[in-house]
Structure formats: structure tokens, C-alpha cells
Design a protein that fits this description.
The complex is a heterodimer of chains A (616) and B (591).
Chain A: H1 2-24, H2 31-53, E1 69-77, E2 82-88, H3 90-109, H4 117-136, H5 140-149, H6 151-161, H7 166-194, H8 197-202, H9 224-235, H10 248-257, H11 271-286, H12 295-302, H13 305-330, H14 332-337, H15 339-358, H16 363-383, E3 388-389, E4 392-393, H17 395-430, H18 441-444, H19 446-460, H20 466-479, H21 483-507, H22 526-544, H23 547-585, H24 591-597, E5 602-604, E6 607-609
Chain B: H1 3-21, H2 23-38, H3 50-64, H4 66-69, E1 86-88, E2 93-95, H5 97-120, H6 128-147, H7 151-169, H8 176-207, H9 212-221, H10 224-249, H11 257-264, H12 267-293, H13 298-307, H14 355-383, H15 389-414, H16 419-454, H17 465-468, H18 470-484, H19 490-499, H20 510-538, H21 556-573, H22 576-585
Antiparallel strand pairs in B: 1-2
Classes of the chains: A mainly alpha (616), B mainly alpha (591).
């Protein structure tokens, strides 16, 4: 069973890289052959992911299971505790499908590219390997490697094949993302050095008769050798040195069931607080969230159409995926405390993005800002943690919000890729994107306009189309978190409707097209139809039958949320209570008592560092 | 003790222990002498010294025998007691796994470098004996730097490595820039050497010895009032010693020679200076930093003296105990049943922390950390404005010196609490040096081959190179991106390993954590200038006055470039073996 999973998942991830190698040996003079080979490679990857989706025996994806499936952990760099550890649950599997699907369509949309086709296809396929790898890897180091692997191909794809300001946009994209990755790397190292599998094992079912068998050891899919080492370490009665790990699932269990990450660090805030902030900034840059979103409009406007589709359809989702998979499970305490900040940032992004979209004159820039606005829903949905019903903490709302966020990611992957494609189609014909010079396209290109209307309405969030479900789930769940935020987020829909309808009016309606290159407005080609139609199809399908996504996503989301809700009830709420009692008792605080309680300052390099470890 | 036993011991020590441990260096000496002698008869003048230097270096590498000392499983928390650190030549040098590793790096570099110069055509047959003599002589000095255990040898090693470098910088006769570079380099080198010598004499005065382990013992056992009294002298002496090391490392503010020398000297010499010289300087920094701050516990020394077994070393035992091979102390020895693991628990449990040594350590950590932070920040920022590829790479090497000093600071800071982590940090440095060899040799090799083809070293001239020489551009891009430190390339693995120990315990070591943040930000800063070169080659149009260069990867030069670039890629994806060897290199320290 496991070897099949190893083979299948590795094939999915590395087939595009292999394809890139094959393309490298194809003759440069036959661009059509190169494109076809690349398309076939992306198609094979898509078929492989679809095979995983067909119900059946393992290693196929099992519906209704929330845990990691097809997980395997093999030796990679054991001298630094790094393993080739992959697996998928509902969330990553849905995003995997979205990625392989978007890549096929984007490859199809790449046909008009005629400059350095070979290099383009190689970079495109390498990019796909990076994207697929991010969603499948469960080792933090491996995750980081795939995360970074995407940067360079993306830089070149924007920088070589982009618009007039392509070099500026490419370096801006690179710089922002690299800054985020470096912050993430610091957080990874901090977490790694504070992790300890031995401590975790003491509260797991690995040790018979542990007090709190909340941690199911087998669910973390550690390398068998590591499990054995931990077992001997725990059963042997002596003190053992900590065993560090990069295993994301194990780190999450440590964050929830031990206080390994609760050491105070800077300014009296805990290590996990800082790790959360660093990771969150890293992911927020990718999402992107206001105020670190400014790379996105530039990158989108300058990138060629297929790369815009990939960027909006897949890359932005990695930020949300990272927050769900890494930030919250590993640093729940910080996530709980910062729930308001996260939600507020999400709402600000929504409003800011919507207003900015209203102000745009460039068609593509407008769609880019609509992405900022829509991704705000994702962050908001993930953030509504401490949703309460009455006075009681109720995790159902949070599950709803997170399901909405995941749905919104997938729906936005469909609709925004579609919107960028629609912009690309018209740009290819008239070579401008100035909204003021459009109008009357409906008369000239009726099929295209019909499809565009459908996709733009999906982006708007019209009921019956995919954009609606996610937005409504998020907004409803926010209601019990904060009514103000809920009202504002619901109000954003009006702004969204405003800019989308206004755009449709300016571009497609009106008596006739008066802008430049009017004679090039030929109707949709079959290739373009073959790309737009599936997008619209899924936009409608997910709108009327959202169960198609929920079937995959919900068990995993609920499992995540349940674990964290249990943590909230068992650990966080008593902790908050205690803290409240302590502050109540300490009033008025006695000066001497406070002095007594001060932890001894650490002298280091002649400076007093007041942030020593607090006694646990 | 009578005279006879003294002589006997000396002989036994020299013949049995010291000379075998010094074999590679001796072979380098032999090679140099042969190269010089072959030139004397008339027929020898037409002989390319390459064919003497290459076998000589290969044999030296065989005797360095890294496979015997490094290729085994390592557990840094509980190093095997088979690995000994043996002082040779009466404690002037030390033979341990670190020596083996750095020697191997230097010799492997020398071999690759010989092929490189053979392909690039500098030196010509006329110059070749001079050139290769200087190269091997410099390598010899660097090997001594890497194994120095005595401040006298530190100075000797630095000078032996520097003097050939001065001459090499001026190798391109008749070029004003080259002569200027050589003059600048030698004047600067002489100045810093003088300062360093003065610092060494101050330290000798304050501590009464130049033997590094003895100096640490003196520091550790000095009464507090005496320590306070001599503090100024010690601080000043340490600072001045650091000036000499910083010059070799090209650390800011002693880096001024570096860009000018790199611009003036040929790319071949640059490769030699940036890889071999830097590796040796880092090893030396490590030796000095550890030497001053590490003094094993007295009872450990006594234990060591008792428990040392090998008969061949029996003659050493009458000497001061610190010169005996250091072995594991009893309380650190792994229990057969216990699980190997890391270090917090394996740390020495001695309750009275030696304040003198702790103060020394803080001083050293602070000094190195400060230099590292300034060096990498300044190097990266100054690289922005460069238009000449060699100057840009010079600033890049300055920045990398900063990165590579960080694990040294980490090792010194944590060596007392967590020797396993300190070993890991030193292993990270070794790994970095190993990777850096390929990255910089590759970069300068490409620069040299392009110089041969287009007669210029301006970055702007590389515009649109990808159209005619795609393979070369891909190789250089891989190397530059690896220098920047992006996965999946070797430079990332090296940076990751070097940064990792800095994050170990932010509360106890805030200085290290600050270094980590600075290093991270510097990585982002360095993005621009590395990527600018890639951008010029790949994105920019060809300049109007360009010389069309089509460089095939199947030509001998191309094969060389590809062979140097492949490890950069492979070591980024699968760096487990090199990491193991690098960790093995650190195994014999602090045990």
C-alpha cells in the first residue's frame, strides 16, 4: 500500500520536472512539439490526480476520512532529521486537484506564447512541481524547499514573458516573497529547536498508560526508525536529550498538547506567538493581505495571461493553505489571542481591495485587486476562532468559517483564473486593457461575452455560482464572532457587485466598440472555448452542488477544528481563567511581591536581558 | 629527566606522531622543490609544471586520507572516542578531524584549480613553474593555518599563505591594475601582520605562553584580581590578533584590499584567494576562537592522562597534560543502553562556571558576531553599485565571510552549555566551506573563460549571453542563485545549516538570534545584485559593441564548468553525505 502511495505522489510531484528535462532535449525549432509535450505532461498529472479522486482502494482518496492519507516518510537527510514526508488530507487534496486542473488550462492558454517557447515550457513545468510539492509535503523543510522552488521560475516567467514593466514587477514579486520566506525560515528553526518528540511521546498512546493519550502517535506518520528511537528513549528510565523534528503533524501536536512552545521570548511574549507572527507574515505576503499586497497588482498586470491564471488560481492559495496547515495547528495559543487581529486584517483587505478595484482603469489591475478583496474572505474565515454562541464557545461556527474559507479558495481559484483568462482573450485581440476604451464587445463576440458574464458573476458571488457559497459561509460564521465585522463583510458584497457590474457594463455592454484595433475582435477560437467552458462549468457546478467540494474538504476541516476546539476547552480557557484570577488577586500589586517574582535576568555579553525563562 | 630520554622522546614524537600527521604538507614541499629543480636543466624549461603539480597534489590528497577519518557514522552528542585530537610537533600544530577536513578541502580545491588554470591558459608555459610554486606554497601555508595550535604557527601560517598571494596578485605583468593590486595587497597585508604580531606579543606577555590550549588554561586559572588587572592588555591583544585574522577573512573594516585586488588580479587568482584563502582563514579563526575559550576541566585532563592507551603515544605522556590526546570525560561517556541524542543533558555538569573563560567567551562571541554582522551587511550593500563582475564577486565573498563567521560565533557561545550544538555549528561551517568551494570556483572559472572569449569583465557585456551560450548562462545562474541561497541549491543547504545553530535558544543567546535575523535580512538584500547578473544575461538585449560568444558545454572548458556546477545542484538536493563528513570533521572538538 505504502509503496503505491510513494510512487503515485512522487510521480505527481516530479513528473512535471521530468517533463521539463524532456523538453530541454527537444529541438528549439519545433515550438509546437514542445507545447504539446508540455500539455501532455500537465494532462497526465491531472489524470493522476483525478485517479486519486475516483473512489476505490488505497492509495485512492478515501471520502469521509479527515486524517492524512497516503502518508509516507522516507529517509532524505537523516543527519538533520529531514525526511521525505508527504501525504494529503481533504484540504490539500482539493487544492492539489485545483492545481493540476489550473495548470492544464494555463498550459492551454500558453499557446499564443511564441518567444523562447522551450525555456517557457521548462520553467512552467518546474513551477508546477513546486506548486504540487507544497500541497503534498508534510515535512517543514521539504515544504520550504518546494515553496522556494517556485520563486525562480515565477521570476523568469514574469520577467521574460511579461508586459512593459515586467522586470520591475518580477523583482518586486521575488523580493516580497523572499522576505516572507526568510521570516518563515527563522520561525521554522525556532520551532525545530524547541520541538521534542520525547516530551510529546509522554502524552501520547505510544507509552502505555500515559495520562493523556490525546496524541495518537500513528497519525503523525513518523519514520519507523524515529518511532523506535522515541520508544526506547521513553521506556528507558533516564533523562534523554530532546529529539527535534520537522514533522508538521508532530509539531502541531506539540503545539496543542505540550508546552514546548510556550517559552517566553521577546517582550514577554511566547515563542509560539513570535513563530505565529513570523509565519503569518510569510503566508500573508503570499495571500496577499493589505498592506503587503502591493506586489500582486504589478505582478498580475505584467505577467502573461497563463501566468496570471496560475498566480491567481494556485499561488495565492498557498498562503491560505499555509495558515490553515501550519500557523493555527502549531501555534494555537497565539492564533487564539490574535484572532481579532487576523479577522480585522481580513476585513480590511476585503474593503481595501474592493475600493481599489473600483478605482482602476486597467482591466487586469481591477481583477487583481478583486483577488485581494476575495482572499480577504479566506483570512477572515480562517480567523473566526473564538466564535461564541451565547456565552459558550462553539466550534461549529469556526468549522463553518474554515470550510467557507477553503471553499472560497477553491472557488476563487476557478473564478479568478477565469477572469484573468477573459481579460487575456480580449487583450490578445485589441492589445490594450483600458476600461474606458472598451464597450460593445457583446455585439462582436457574443459567445465570449456570455462566458465572461458567467465567470464574472461567479466572482461577484451571485447565488447559484461558486463565489456565493464561500462568502456566505464566512459571513455567517463571522456573525457570532463579531456582528460589526459580519455587517462590514456582508457590505463588501455590495462593493464587489459595484465594481464587477460596472466593469461588465463598460466592457461588454454599450452600442459598439470604439477603441483601437476594433477589426481584430474575431470570435472565440475553439482552444479558448475549451479553456473557458470548463471554468464556467465548474463555477456553476460548485454553485449549485457545493457538496462536490464539501465531501472532500469537510472531514479534514472538522478534524482540524475539533482538535483545536478541544485544545481551547482543555488548555486555553483554563489558562485564560487562571490568568484572570491572578490579575484579580494581584490588585493592588505590592511592589516587593512583584520584585520577588521577577525572573532572574540573564546576563549576556554585558547586557541584562530581562526575558529569561519563566518557571513552568 | 636526563638528556637522553629527552632526545629519545623528541625523536619518537617527531617520527612516530608528528611526521605522519604532517605528510600531506611534506609532500607539497617535495612537489614545490621538484618543480623548481626541473627548471634547471635545459630540457626542463619546456616542461609544463602542471604535470608535476597535479600528481604531487594527488599524492598529498591520498595521504590526507579523508576516507579514513571522516567517512563513518557520527553522533555529535556522543562522539566516538576513537577520534583523537593529537598535538604534533610539540603542540605547535594539532592533528584532528578538522585538520583532515580542511586539508582535504584545500587539496581538492588545488586539484580542481590546476585543471582550471590548465584550461584557462593562465599561466602560460613560461610562467607555470612560478605560478604553481606560488599556488602550492600558499596552499601549504593554508594547511598550516588550518592546523595551527600555537600563535607562532598562526603568524607563520598567515604569512606563508599571504606572501605567495601578494605575488600572485601581481602575476599579470605589465598591467598597471595588476601591479597596483599586488602593491595594495602587500602593503595592507604587511600592516595588518604587524598589528597582529604586536597583539600576539601582548597576549604572550599577559599569559606567558603562545600555545593556545595553555593560554586557555592560563586564562581559566588566573586569579580574578590578576585577570582584572590584565584585562586591558588581553582585550587589546585579542583585538589586534583579530585584525590580522579579519584581513585574511576580508572582514569589514579590513576588506578594502579585497575588491581592488580582485579587480586587478586575474580571475584564476581570485578563485584561489576567495576559496582557499578564505577556507584557511575560517579554520584559523575557529582554531584561535576555540583555543582561547576552551579549557577542559582539570579532572578531565587527569582522567585523560590516565586513560590514554595507544603505546605509540606513550612518549607524550610525561609532558604537560594538555598536550595529551583529549578523550571523553567519564561523565560524558555514553552509557551502552542510553540513546544517543543532543546535548543539553550531555553538557558538563561542573557547577562552578569559570568566570574568566566565560568573560573571554563573551568577548570573542561579541567580537566575531559584530564583525560578522557588519561584514555581511556591508558586503551585500556595497555589491549593489558594482559594474565589474570581479568586483561584484569580491563583495559577494566579503558578505559570505560574514555568513561563515556566524557559526563560529555560535560554536564559541554554546560550547560550554551544549557541546553537541557547538560541534554542529562547526560542522555547518565545514559544510559551508565545502559548498563554497564549488560555488566560487565555478563563478570565477566562468568569468575567466568569458574573459578569454570576450576580453572584458564588465557585467554589461554579458547582456543577452543566453542567446548564444545558454548552457554557460544556466551554469552561472545556478551558481549565483546558490550564492544567494535559494533551494534546491547547495548554497541554501549551507546557509540553512549555518543559520540553524543561531536559532537554538534565543533567550540564552540573544546575540546569536540577532545574528540570525541579520543574516536573514541580508539574504533578502543580496537578492538584487545576484539576480541582476542573471537578469543581464537572460533578459537584457545584447549590447551593440559586443563580441559574439558561443560557448558550448561540450568544449573542455564547458565540461569543466558543468562538472563544477553539478555538485552545486546535487548538494542542494541531497546533502546528507557531505553533512555527515562535515559533522565528522567537528567530532574531535570539545570532547
Amino acid at each position: 500500500m505504502q509503496s503505491q502511495a510513494v510512487l503515485l505522489l512522487s510521480l505527481i510531484v516530479f513528473l512535471p520536472a521530468l517533463g521539463a528535462l524532456i523538453v530541454a532535449f527537444l529541438p528549439k525549432e519545433r515550438p509546437d512539439v514542445i507545447k504539446w509535450v508540455s500539455l501532455v505532461v500537465t494532462l497526465i498529472v491531472f489524470v493522476l490526480t483525478v485517479i486519486l479522486a475516483i473512489p476505490g482502494e488505497n492509495p485512492r482518496f478515501q471520502l469521509g476520512v479527515g486524517q492524512m492519507q497516503d502518508a509516507f516518510s522516507l529517509d532524505w537527510i537523516p543527519s538533520f532529521n529531514i525526511y521525505y514526508f508527504m501525504g494529503m488530507d481533504g484540504i490539500s487534496f482539493a487544492l492539489l486537484l485545483l492545481t493540476s486542473f489550473s495548470t492544464v488550462l494555463a498550459m492551454g492558454a500558453s499557446w499564443p506564447i511564441d518567444k523562447h517557447v522551450k525555456a517557457y515550457c521548462i520553467l512552467f513545468l518546474l513551477l508546477e512541481t513546486g506548486m504540487l510539492g507544497v500541497f503534498l509535503s508534510l515535512d517543514f523543510f521539504l515544504f520550504y524547499v518546494f515553496w522556494e522552488v517556485m520563486l525562480l521560475p515565477m521570476y523568469f516567467l514574469i520577467g521574460v514573458w511579461g508586459g512593459p514593466r515586467r522586470e520591475y514587477a518580477a523583482i518586486k514579486f521575488f523580493l516580497y516573497t523572499l522576505l516572507g520566506s526568510v521570516l518563515m525560515l527563522i520561525a521554522i528553526l525556532m520551532l525545530y529547536f524547541n520541538s521534542d518528540l520525547v516530551t510529546l511521546a509522554k502524552s501520547s498512546d505510544l507509552v502505555a498508560g500515559a495520562e493523556n493519550p490525546a496524541v495518537k502517535w500513528s497519525e503523525m506518520h513518523l519514520h519507523p526508525r524515529i518511532t523506535e528511537e522515541v520508544r526506547t528513549a521513553v521506556t528507558g528510565n533516564q533523562d534523554v536529550p530532546p529529539m527535534h523534528t520537522f514533522n508538521i503533524l508532530a509539531l502541531a501536536q506539540m503545539g496543542q498538547h505540550t508546552n514546548l512552545f510556550d517559552e517566553p521570548l521577546l517582550f514577554g511574549l511566547t515563542l509560539q506567538w513570535w513563530a505565529f507572527v513570523l509565519l503569518f507574515i510569510g503566508f500573508a505576503i503570499k495571500v496577499p493581505i493589505v498592506p503587503v499586497h502591493t506586489w500582486l497588482p504589478d505582478a498580475h498586470v505584467e505577467a502573461p495571461t497563463p501566468i496570471s491564471m496560475i498566480l491567481a488560481g494556485v499561488l495565492l492559495k498557498m498562503g491560505g493553505y499555509g495558515i490553515i496547515r501550519i500557523c493555527y495547528p502549531i501555534c494555537p495559543d497565539a492564533g487564539y489571542d490574535l484572532a481579532w487581529v487576523v479577522c480585522l486584517i481580513g476585513v480590511v483587505s476585503m474593503i481595501y481591495g474592493a475600493f481599489a478595484a473600483l478605482a482602476q482603469k486597467d482591466f487586469k489591475r481591477l481583477v487583481a485587486y478583486s483577488s485581494v478583496s476575495h482572499m480577504g474572505y479566506v483570512v477572515l474565515g480562517i480567523g473566526v476562532w473564538s466564535a461564541v454562541a451565547g456565552n459558550q464557545f462553539n466550534s461549529d461556527y469556526w468549522a463553518m468559517g474554515m470550510t467557507g474559507a477553503v471553499f472560497q479558495m477553491l472557488a476563487h481559484g476557478i473564478s479568478s483564473a477565469g477572469m484573468f483568462f477573459m481579460v487575456g482573450v480580449v487583450y490578445e485581440r485589441v492589445h490594450h486593457r483600458n476600461l474606458d476604451q472598451f464597450g460593445g464587445l457583446f455585439g462582436r463576440m457574443p459567445v465570449y461575452s456570455g462566458l465572461a458574464f458567467g465567470i464574472f458573476f461567479a466572482g461577484l458571488g451571485l447565488p447559484g455560482l461558486c463565489g456565493f457559497i464561500g462568502e456566505v459561509f464566512v459571513t455567517l460564521s463571522v456573525w457570532s464572532f463579531s456582528k460589526t465585522l459580519a455587517v462590514i463583510s456582508a457590505g463588501t458584497v455590495i462593493l464587489t457587485a459595484g465594481y464587477i457590474l460596472w466593469t461588465l457594463q463598460r466592457v461588454y455592454l454599450g452600442p459598439e466598440y470604439k477603441g483601437p484595433h476594433g477589426d481584430h475582435l474575431y470570435p472565440l477560437k475553439p482552444r479558448e472555448l475549451a479553456i473557458a467552458a470548463p471554468l464556467l462549468f465548474f463555477a456553476i457546478l460548485f454553485g449549485v452542488y457545493p457538496q462536490a467540494i464539501f465531501n472532500y474538504v469537510t472531514p479534514s476541516v472538522e478534524r482540524n477544528v475539533k482538535q483545536l476546539a478541544r485544545w481551547t476547552e482543555d488548555v486555553k480557557e483554563p489558562r485564560t481563567e487562571r490568568a484572570k484570577e491572578q490579575t484579580a488577586m494581584q490588585q493592588p500589586p505590592k511592589v516587593t511581591a512583584v520584585l520577588d517574582q521577577q525572573p532572574p535576568a540573564v546576563k549576556y555579553w554585558g547586557v541584562d536581558w530581562p526575558l529569561s525563562r519563566l518557571p513552568r | 629527566m636526563n638528556f637522553d630520554t629527552l632526545i629519545n622522546n623528541l625523536l619518537r614524537d617527531t617520527l612516530d606522531t608528528s611526521l605522519p600527521g604532517f605528510m600531506p604538507e611534506l609532500l607539497l614541499c617535495v612537489t614545490i622543490v621538484v618543480m623548481l629543480l626541473v627548471r634547471l636543466p635545459r630540457f626542463g624549461r619546456r616542461f609544463n609544471s602542471f604535470f608535476i603539480a597535479l600528481p604531487g597534489t594527488l599524492i598529498a590528497l591520498y595521504f590526507a586520507a579523508p576516507w579514513r577519518y571522516l567517512f563513518h557514522d557520527v553522533d555529535l552528542a556522543f562522539p566516538s572516542d576513537a577520534v583523537l585530537s593529537t598535538p604534533i610537533f610539540d603542540g605547535l600544530l594539532v592533528f584532528d578531524t578538522l585538520t583532515v577536513y580542511f586539508r582535504t578541502v584545500l587539496l581538492v580545491f588545488a586539484i580542481l584549480f590546476l585543471f582550471f588554470t590548465w584550461l584557462s591558459g593562465i599561466p602560460d608555459r613560461e610562467d607555470s613553474p612560478d605560478f604553481y610554486t606560488l599556488i602550492l606554497g600558499g596552499t601549504l601555508g593554508m594547511c598550516i593555518m588550518a592546523s595551527a595550535n600555537h600563535l607562532f604557527m598562526v603568524f607563520l601560517g598567515v604569512e606563508m599563505a599571504s606572501v605567495p598571494s601578494y605575488a600572485l596578485a601581481g602575476m599579470l605583468k605589465g598591467r598597471a591594475k595588476s601591479s597596483e593590486a599586488a602593491l595594495k595587497y602587500s602593503v595592507y597585508g604587511a600592516g595588518t601582520a604587524g598589528v597582529m604580531l604586536y597583539g600576539i606579543s601582548l597576549l604572550a606577555g599577559a599569559l606567558g605562553t603562545l600555545h593556545l590550549p595553555t593560554m586557555a588554561q592560563q586564562l581559566a586559572h588566573m586569579p580574578a584580581d590578576m585577570f582584572a588587572e590584565r584585562q586591558t592588555v588581553l582585550l587589546l591583544g585579542g583585538l589586534m590578533l583579530m585584525v590580522g585574522l579579519a584581513f585574511k577573512l576580508s572582514a569589514v573594516p579590513f576588506h578594502f584590499w579585497c575588491p581592488d585586488v580582485f579587480e586587478g588580479a586575474s580571475a584564476e587568482v581570485n578563485a584561489f584567494l576567495s576559496v582557499a584563502s578564505k577556507a584557511a582563514a575560517l579554520a584559523l579563526l575557529l582554531r584561535v576562537a576555540i583555543g582561547f575559550s576552551y579549557a577542559p576541566e582539570p579532572e578531565a585532563r587527569e582522567l585523560a592522562a590516565i586513560s590514554v592507551g595507544p603505546a605509540s603515544r606513550a612518549g607524550l605522556e610525561h609532558r604537560t597534560v594538555h598536550k595529551t590526546p583529549i578523550v571523553l570525560t567519564a561523565h560524558e561517556k555514553p552509557q551502552p543502553a542510553s540513546k544517543p541524542g543532543a546535548a543539553r543533558l550531555a553538557a558538563p555538569t561542573n557547577p562552578d562556571v569559570n568566570t574568566n573563560l566565560a568573560k573571554t567567551r563573551h568577548y570573542i562571541v561579541g567580537l566575531i558576531a559584530l564583525l560578522a554582522a557588519i561584514t555581511c551587511t556591508f558586503g551585500n550593500l556595497a555589491a549593489y553599485g558594482q559594474t565589474n563582475i570581479k568586483r561584484l564577486l569580491a563583495y559577494s565573498t566579503i558578505a559570505h565571510a560574514g555568513y561563515m563567521m556566524m557559526p563560529v560565533a555560535a560554536a564559541v557561545a554554546v560550547m560550554d552549555d551544549n557541546p553537541a550544538l557547538a560541534r554542529q555549528a562547526i560542522g555547518a561551517l565545514c559544510f559551508y566551506v565545502g559548498v563554497y568551494l564549488f560555488m566560487n570556483l565555478g563563478a570565477f572559472a566562468i568569468v575567466a573563460f568569458l574573459r578569454n572569449a570576450m576580453r572584458t569583465e564588465e557585467i554589461a557585456a554579458y547582456g543577452g549571453l543566453i542567446r548564444r551560450s545558454p548552457g554557460l548562462v544556466i551554469c552561472l545562474s545556478i551558481i549565483l542563485v546558490s550564492l544567494l541561497g535559494l533551494p534546491p541549491l547547495a548554497g541554501f543547504a549551507a546557509k540553512f545549516l549555518a543559520f540553524a545553530p543561531l536559532a537554538a535558544d534565543p533567550n540564552r543567546y540573544p546575540v546569536l538570534f540577532t545574528l540570525l535575523v541579520i543574516g536573514g535580512i541580508n539574504t533578502v538584500i543580496s537578492l538584487f545584485y545576484y539576480l541582476r547578473v542573471v537578469k543581464v544575461m537572460a533578459l537584457d538585449p545584447e549590447p551593440d559593441d559586443h563580441v559574439p560568444v558561443s560557448f558550448s558545454l561540450t568544449s573542455p572548458e564547458g565540461v569543466f564548468v558543468a562538472l563544477i556546477s553539478i555538485p552545486v545542484l546535487v548538494l542542494g538536493v541531497w546533502w546528507d553525505p557531505l553533512n555527515r563528513w562535515a559533522q565528522a570533521a567537528a567530532e574531535s572538538l570539545f570532547s
